[in-house]
Amino acid sequence: MVSFSAVLLVCALNHPASAAELGEVRIRYAPYHLPSATISVEATMVELGLTVRDRKGTPSGGFQASDFQVFDNLKPQTIISFSEQRAAPLANPGAVAPSSAPPSVAPPAATAAAPPRYIALFFDDTHAGLAGFDRSKHAAEKLIADGLRPGDRIGIFTGSGAVTLDFTADTKTLLATLAGMRRHPGDGSSRGFGVCPTLTAYQAYVIANHLDSMAKAVAVAGVRACEPSIPIEIAETQA
Fold this sequence. Notes:
By secondary structure, this protein is of the alpha+beta class. Helices cover 33% and strands 10% of the residues.
């Protein structure tokens, strides 16, 4: 403002004139402030990501920008840049989504046939109740009629020893053997080993083959019940 006043004075001195010619001159001044700067930024590009899958859920590709439409508040927008990205294959083949392989791909080779089985059916015909014994027979009949594979063999054995059939695939013989089986309650003592304690064939089998530790413990307890003074080591040997 000082320089502005000096200019006005210089102009007045260089051009002398009367007050009437100059008229009334008023000078107003105020502190000078720079106008505030306004920065305006308009965002015109927005990045969008999407995954395209077919009806089977398999990711699809090969698209162009013209295949898509983008709207902002129901107003169509222009797609400026478009790129397709593919994820790396998974390390676990079992987790990969089913691929759209053409029908011409050969199916996987059939698995090898399962080896034949040898199935032993044991019936406790000396201790089982009538209802339980009959249920066991019916279950065995169903297995023989419907559950066997080619090459399977079945043997039938009983605790009393009254019925024994070696392994065979003849279903008629197996079913006939089952139909002829009867309970023999009380025969265990007469067919056991030793006078005291009495061991059935089944107990001897599971003890000799280490199939049931409880069966051996029961036999040892039986030996010591017959001879209370016998050492446990000898009782285990006898059992």
